[in-house]
Amino acid sequence: MTTLLDLFSIVAISAGIDTKWLRLALVAGPAVSLITGLAGEVMAGSVFAYPPSRAKPIILSIEAFMLLSIAAALPMLVAGPPTERTDQ
Predict the structure, then answer these.
(1) Considering the domain boundaries, does residue 24 fall inside one?
(2) 2 — phi, psi (to 5°)?
(3) Is the dihedral of CA 8, 11, 16, 17 positive or negative?
(4) Per the domain annotation, does 61 fall within a domain?
(5) What is the distance between the alpha carbons of residues 72 and 23, in angstroms, rounded to a whole number?
(6) CA nearest 3: which of 71, 78, 76?
(7) Number of domains the chain contains
(8) Distance between CA atoms of 30 and 25, rounded to whole angstroms?
(9) What is the pLDDT of residue 76?
(10) pTM for this one?
(11) Residue 29, Cβ neighbours under 10 Å: how many?
(12) Does the residue 12 lie in any domain?
């Protein structure tokens, strides 16, 4: 009987942890958060401070990128480190 955890681990291992898109997905959330946080210094005079008219879209975009990073990291954490496959 195949469980959902088994399916996620197969996907994570078959994708490979050294693929460019996976590394980009893992780094995208923190990078966007840092860049927009520092942009707040220019836009409103303080880190992570935004003009009230633009605050909601900026915060939602940060959260969307963080969601992408978390969604990429969790299956990798559950699957654990890759092991050698014997069926190849």
Answers:
(1) yes
(2) -90, 130
(3) negative
(4) yes
(5) 9
(6) 78
(7) 1
(8) 10
(9) 79
(10) 0.68
(11) 21
(12) no
CA atoms of 11 and 82, how far apart (whole Å)? 11
Cα–Cα dist 50/60, whole Å: 13
Tens of pLDDT along 29-88?
A: 999 999 999 998 888 888 888 888 988 999 999 999 999 999 988 887 877 776 666 665
Extract the tokens encoding 61.
Answer: 């975009």
Q: Which residue has the higher pLDDT, 3 or 62?
A: 62
Compute the distance between CA of residue 33 and CA of residue 7 in angstroms, rounded to an integer. 31
Domain presence at residue 3 = no
Q: Return the number of other C-beta atoms located less than 10 Å from residue 35's C-beta.
A: 11
Structure token digits, residue 4: 């959902």
Domain limits at 60? 19-79
